[in-house]
User: Fold these one by one.
Assistant:
Number 1:
Amino acid sequence: MPNKKTGKPNPWLLKFVHGYPGWFVPLMVERGEAKTEAQAVKLLSLIEAIEHNDVKLIKKLVPSTFDSNLVFDEDTLLEHAVVRGQIDSVRALLQAGADVKKCTLGGDVETNALLLEHGADPNARVGGYTPLGGACMAGDEAMVALLIRASANPNAGNSIHLNNKHEVKNCTPLMLAAWRGHLTVAGMLLSAGANPAKKDSEGQTALDWARRRKGRKADPMIDLLEGASR
């Protein structure tokens, strides 16, 4: 990527700066993430600090040099910390004033518990999923329990792609747990008020999703949902 003013090869091209390719530096200025290349380099040092739980450097740069809600590469600083599961960085950014409402839940249970304590929305979507929907798909019982305690909606709709051309909408967390065979999770959802009679965009209930699973003559999930549907 040549320098637009001089037409000469960009001096950053063959360098690496805090783990990022050098060409990223002038691109950050071009995208408005930094005013100068020097500031861009300092911002990359902050991103590296977030990725490695370098709380001392985070406190030095935020909010004195960079706004705590700055967006870098389409994510807020807090989201960068959350995605990488760096709870010390998450805690430092929250203390510096990062707005938890500008960050979706993600990462491990401990990180999500901290975000929820600071007012994160337990129903904020990531793509087509609610946090509870994603946790039910994964069979993450600890995360499901955390989200239920935080009043996540057990009947919220999720969108899933069965293949590249087949999308089903309004799938409840119970449907997703049933489809994946996560029996304990399904029981937790029913106890939290999940409605087994809810239907997705194709008119299917959680019981129908459980029956999608093949190769099982006796399926405890089907037994559970048949009992709950009576």
Number 2:
Amino acid sequence: MKEYTAKDIRNIGVFGHGGEGKTTLTEAMLFNAGLIDRLGKVENGTTTTDYDPEEIARGISINVALAPLEWKNTKINVIDAPGFFDFYGEVTAAMAFADSALIVISAVSGPVVGAEKAMAMCEKSHKARMIAINQLDRENANFEKVMSEINAKFGPSVVPIQLPIIEGGVFKGYVDIVNMRASSLTAKARRKPQSRPQLRNWRSPITKSSPKPLPKRTKSSWRNTSKRLNSAAKRCSRASLSAFRPAWSRP
């Protein structure tokens, strides 16, 4: 069994109202980390963290459950907490054990009382927290509306680091604002990036069918090219680059 030092261990609690998809999100984390080979479903009673017979029969989380996984050489203890107030003692125990919190909010219902309670508990215990807007693939999901409600309840300091790509009312992927990169999703898995041999096939027919080899460049020609590129880069103004920044990050 692999041993981890304290600096390589994270305890993250998953909190929110009942029915917001906390257990399903935990299941997806385990699947992406390679701990399970298929995604379980709450309605089928096949999820990893809802293992108690009473949980399977009711289709809800009753007990706090621990789901350890490894991601980028870091051990992450995911703590799946119940969402219904009948089991508030389990939620309190999970909050005490967690170093930080992932608060799950549905893109349909918005920030309801469960999310408000979780945020209040985080503020009282001075824990870092992040919000995940879940269930974007459901009918009547509205990211912009829910984001506005979150800002109205929790303040303007809550800003998105990812934005969903919605086409025709269907969730197609997301944009990573931090790295300014878009990822497209299929019904089964994330689309993998093209490999180098495939990228070579995208070269223009003119380049492929050119009978003459490209002329060799001398050291002076490379130096001149470098100077021209540096000169062009200096002429680029900060105003032109700001067009690529998201609107919420502009001053």
Number 3:
Amino acid sequence: MSQDKLMKVLQAAGIDSRRTIRQDINDGRYLVNNRVITDPNFMVDIDKDTVRHDDKKLKLKIEKKSYFLFNKPYGVVTTLQDPQERTTLTEFISRIKERVYPVGRLDYHSEGLIVLTNDGDFTNFIISAKNKIPKIYMLKIKGSLSEEERRKLSDKGIHLDGVRVIPQRIEFVKKTGQGNSWIRVTIVEGKKHILRKVFKYSGHPVEKLKRTAVGTFRLKTLPVGHWREITQEELDEFKRVYHYEEGSNNNEGKERSVRKTAKARSLKKARPVSKDLFQKKDPHVSKARPERKERTESKAQPKRKERTEYRDRPERKERTDYNAGSERKERTEYRDRPERKERTASNDSRVGKGRAVVKKIGVKKVGKY
């Protein structure tokens, strides 16, 4: 056998689910030739290489690729193992010889079509948003969706978690006796509870949800809780309509561009550090620009003279001596001036007249005079 990716080989051999295998590889639980491998894209050859999981040697045998359709009942978890011990798909598909896994998810309260396969490339092709594989649902909503509401959802959509979601098609099917409605909705997004959120915010909560188609695969008359194998004609039709090439990595271009972008970002961040950054530099000198040095020198100003030299200037000394000779007169001499005495006497006479008037009238004294 030619070399292939470790993740793809383990999934094709039915070791575990795609999610669990990826997590175990990242945790370093897989060894190839006694070497810990944490890269899911590591190339291995099962005919030559020895693969171990937690020191247990694995007998890798590539299973035949199988494809099935399953009609999930209400109240079943779309997984093979549930820590809460709820009903899982394992109870319904135990008779399938190959170890198959569900493609995508259908929530606990929903029912309808699920694709089961052990083909990892086929699984990735269906769940990848860029391939735009349509899914058709039958919804029972509360009330009736008006023509204006239907057109608004189909044209403008609705914002969910910062992303605009636009259903591809909304068709009215029938009305119930309680005033509710059945509608058929086609979408290409695969986010969790997307349809329940869309119609809840539109004022028409979903009461029942059933998936009837994934791409060209149809539920038709498959009973609830039963499965059937996909025929070769159905598989060929799907591959032809959605241009799926078997054996080729349909997401290779996208993965390559992502790796290239990540590498470019890492190179951009890891710039070499110059040794000159750690050396002290003269702020007035620039090695790269000689004209800068000339301008810096021309702008440099002479140092300021010491304060002692400034005071020793002859003109400063003369002014200091002049000021020292003319001393200010005492405050007492200032008060002894004759004109000052006259003004003080006139003010005292006015104050005396005011006191006499207050005493004569009998007004209480309210301030100091």
